[in-house]
TrEMBL record:
Transmembrane intervals: 41-61, 73-92, 98-117, 129-148, 163-182, 202-220, 226-243, 250-269
Lineage: Bacteria, Pseudomonadati, Bacteroidota, Flavobacteriia, Flavobacteriales
Protein name: Prenyltransferase
Keywords, ordered alphabetically: Membrane, Transmembrane, Transmembrane helix
Domain of life: Bacteria
Amino acid sequence: MRVFKLIVDFYIKGSIHVGLSCYALVRMTQHMFHISYEDSIAHFAFFGTIVGYNFVKYDALARAKKIQMRNELKAIALFSFCCFILVGYYFFQLQRVTQIVAVVFFSITLLYTLPFFPTKRNARNWAGVKIYIVALCWVGVTLGLPIINAEIPITADFYLKCLQRFILIFVLVLVFEIIDLANDDPHLKTVPQQIGVRRTKLLGLLLLLPFYFLEFLKSNFDKNQLVVNLLLVIMISLFLIFANDKRSKYYTSFWVESIPIVWWILLILG
């Protein structure tokens, strides 16, 4: 049992799970826009998410020497380095314009983590903007990059999907912010800190309405997608309603982050 827990903890702490969530959303994009399942962009997003999240989670703590390089962290560092090499490998398989856009989002990740200005903290600590940066990056990587790399024409459907995807990530991050409320710095001004937990849950539930009904505005909406999206909305609503700062770390780091994976699986089964 102890070995199983070590494996699960490494799977989560090493950002493999969140990487799979990103991978699932890229595959969702390919399905929605009828793009052939091209692996380079999906693998680039998967390994890039692992590297980016591990960098964000552990870089600041390591530089501040608030964590010691225990065996687990050494393993995560080595694993992240291997993923970084694979990111480079898949990066050079992408279209040139995709590479440029990918570098832009990588720069945003650096801005999110590193204090570029001497008198300013990193973007992660800018009051009230964290949730928007996270949602924007996820939309760009899981929706923008696959479309650009496949050279798909930008239509109204693309902008509808961008808005829909942004709402999805925004609501999921709200669950994280509710769970982390007791530990977050008050200066972050997260949504629950500004409007309270009850109103945050209400906001999330209300945002799920346009998320669902935007599907009807597509030029050729899929009835199966409507059923799958309804199941997704119900699932997210339950996670949102039952979220509180007493929940286990696995509530968000495993179960909530599983939602994009479940969404993709439901679509495949459908």
